[in-house]
Amino acid sequence: MVRIKICGVTTPDDARLAAEAGADAIGLNFYPPSPRFVSPAQAAAILRALPPFTTPVGVFVGQPVRQVCAIAYQLGLRAVQTYDPPSGEDTFPFAHIPAFRVRESADLDAIRRFVTDAVQANVRPGAILIDARVDGQYGGTGHTVPWPLLRGFDVGVPLILAGGLTPENVGEAIATVRPWGVDVASGVERSAGVKDGELVRRFIAQARQAGP
Asked: Which of 7, 14, 24, 69 is catalytic?
């Protein structure tokens, strides 16, 4: 079964919406330049609305691991997703999802090196997330990864596919890449940070239908 994360959740109502629609996880964005940014105080209100068994994931860009883990501990997050992460960092007890922006095959080589170094350092990531490379932006861009590039790509940890996914294309993306999970933000929104209930439900239904 393909796992589904609704990312960039900014309100308690949208957290409940995602959970009730069947999402496995929600993403809380702690990157201040993002239009989906939430402060720890805002995140706490969102998490209070989240039912059990829906996993909260913190999304971070360029923050020291110690600060990332402090926020995760404060809020009781289950996992942390970090863009452009340094190798060898340990986020235990929080599952680490290093996020990589991909445009060409050289980007995949960098992921292989990262995972190899992490395994050697005994800090194997819980999963990797692959997003579209858009210069100066981290997630929520609406741009897709070159899916055929990822066909058969396997570095020994689960792969989460992000980048420009929508209810209309998630089935094709899953059929091409065969990811462990999918991640969506802008593809289920009325505006940046405001989820559309119908789009969320359709996305989850299409992903479930396409998954093994």
From this structure: 7
pTM greater than the 0.85 cutoff? yes
Catalytic residue among 14, 24, 131, 183: 131
Is 131 designated active site? Answer: yes
Please write the tens of the pLDDT for every residue from 4-62. 999 999 999 999 999 999 999 999 999 999 999 999 999 999 999 999 999 999 999 99
Separation CA 29–CA 47 (nearest Å): 13
The second-level CATH assignment, the architecture, of 3-210 is Alpha-Beta Barrel (3.20)
Active site residue 84: no
Q: Where are the domains of the chain?
A: 3-210
